[in-house]
Amino acid sequence: MRTDEIASGLAGVEKRIGEACLAAGRDRGEVTLIAVTKTYPAADVRLLAGLGVRDVGENRDQEAAPKAAACADLPLTWHFVGQLQTNKVRSVVGYADLIHSVDRGRLVEAISREAVRQSREIGCLVQVALDDDPGRGGVRPADVPAVAEAIDAAPGLWLGGVMAVAPLGEDPGKAFARLRDVALGVQEGHPRATMISAGMSVDLAEAVAHGATHVRVGTALLGRRKLFVR
Question: Where are residues bearing N6-(pyridoxal phosphate)lysine located in the sequence (predicted)?
Answer without folding.
Answer: 38
